[in-house]
Specification:
The protein has 4 helices and 11 strands, in the order H-H-E-E-H-E-E-E-E-E-E-H-E-E-E. The chain has about 200 residues and is of the alpha+beta class. The protein has one domain. Strands 5, 6, 9, 10 and 11 form a 5-stranded antiparallel β-sheet that branches. A hairpin with a 2-residue loop joins strand 5 and strand 6.
Length: about 200
C-alpha cells in the first residue's frame, strides 16, 4: 500500500512539474524517496526565557521569574521553538524541499499550525541534512491558572518529545516537492526518532 501511494505521488508530481524541466523532476522524485525523522527540539523560548533545559519552576532564576510575571500579567503565552528534522537522501542525486506545513498537537488535539515557504533546502546525494522547522504556539488555551508551572510543563513535554521520550506533544510535518509555481504536497509524517 505504501509503495502504491508513493507511485501515485510520483505520477502526480511528474504531471505537475512536466514543464519545469528534467532537473526539477529528478529533485522532486528524489524528495519522494527521502526519509524524515526528528533530530531534537531546541531553542524553546517564552517571554525571552530559553526553557530548553528547564525541568521545574525551581530551575528558573530570579530574572526569569520577573520576565515570566510580566508575560503572565500581559497574558502573553506565546512559545516558540525549533523542531530540527533530519532528511535522509539515499539516492545518488540531490533532492529539493522548498516548503513544509507543520501541526503541533497536544494530547492528539491541534494546538498550533503553520507553514514555511521562505527557504528552499537542497539535500545532497547519500547524505542527511538537518532542517530547522520554526514553530510558534500560543498556549493560552491550556493555561489553567496563569501559572509559570503550566508553561514549564508544556515546554518539558516539548523537550521530552524532542528526546524521543513519552510526551503529550506530537508534531506532524507535511513536505512539499516540485517548484513554487507547481507544488505537490507529500504525505504527512508524524515525526519521531525513526526514519520514515
Amino acid at each position: 500500500m505504501k509503495a502504491l501511494k508513493k507511485t501515485f505521488i510520483v505520477l502526480m508530481a511528474t504531471a505537475t512539474v512536466l514543464f519545469a524541466g528534467c532537473a526539477a523532476l529528478t529533485q522532486l522524485v528524489n524528495l519522494v524517496n527521502c526519509k524524515f525523522n526528528l533530530a531534537n527540539i531546541s531553542d524553546i523560548t517564552w517571554a525571552g526565557i530559553n526553557l530548553s533545559n528547564i525541568r521545574n519552576v525551581s530551575d528558573l532564576s530570579f530574572s526569569h521569574l520577573q520576565k515570566a510575571a510580566t508575560a503572565i500579567a500581559n497574558r502573553d503565552f506565546a512559545v516558540s521553538a525549533n523542531v530540527n528534522v533530519n532528511v535522509k537522501n539515499e539516492t545518488p542525486n540531490p533532492a529539493k524541499l522548498f516548503a513544509f506545513d507543520y501541526d503541533l498537537l497536544l494530547e492528539n488535539s491541534p494546538l498550533a499550525s503553520g507553514q514555511n515557504k521562505n527557504h528552499t533546502y537542497t539535500i545532497n546525494p547519500n547524505s542527511i541534512q538537518t532542517i530547522p522547522v520554526p514553530i510558534k504556539a500560543d498556549i493560552v488555551s491550556i493555561i489553567k491558572n496563569g501559572q509559570v508551572g503550566d508553561v514549564v510543563n508544556f515546554t518539558r513535554n516539548l523537550t521530552d518529545y524532542g528526546n524521543g521520550k513519552e510526551s503529550n506533544v506530537k508534531i506532524k510535518l507535511t513536505p512539499y516537492a516540485g517548484t513554487k509555481e507547481n507544488s505537490v504536497k507529500l504525505p504527512t509524517i508524524t515525526l519521531n526518532k525513526t526514519f520514515q
